[in-house]
Amino acid sequence: DTGVSQNPRHKITKRGQNVTFRCDPISEHNRLYWYRQTLGQGPEFLTYFQNEAQLEKSRLLSDRFSAERPKGSFSTLEIQRTEQGDSAMYLCASNWGPSYNEQFFGPGTRLTVL
Amino acid sequence: TQLLEQSPQFLSIQEGENLTVYCNSSSVFSSLQWYRQEPGEGPVLLVTVVTGGEVKKLKRLTFQFGDARKDSSLHITAAQPGDTGLYLCAGAGRYGGSQGNLIFGKGTKLSVKP
Fold this sequence. Notes:
heterodimer, A: 114 residues, 49% strand, globular, B: 114 residues, mainly beta, five-stranded antiparallel sheet
């Protein structure tokens, strides 16, 4: 039983560079969520997909952020022109069925912008 | 304004002691989840409470949902070093809010010393 996987686990980049993260949800899960967690805070919702449709985006998701889930399976989150304030743990979660509440999280991608 | 307030923020206790952590809100939620997160990892779901007044037990952990579905508590009996971690509560289905968007508190960082 494989859980949610995320790659890479760690990413260090220079300010102004673009980065892309990948999330592979649990195979039968049709909903996929992205969250961001900064030090000392709980995760904050960014966006979620049902199958390939992006159904909700947070105001935190600025124009520099884009997420895709082209075939309703894995998802990518791209950040363009990274800023130091983008340094955070980016978490992906998935679920399915009638319960939107029980979300299963991956290990996260730790982004450090120098 | 933090929608979900968790207290205490930090807790350091000796092995064998009991403890209670709290999660409070002025908003009504359709359910509350409790997660535990270890450094550098994603949150792991412990329990979901749905009905006002509901009590759930998971070995030495007892979770309670307030009658008005605005608050919850987690009680740990005879804490062990393995209980060390960040305990996060998350609310779902806030009245008027999105079903896909989990709202997290900042967490309670628990340290259990042998």
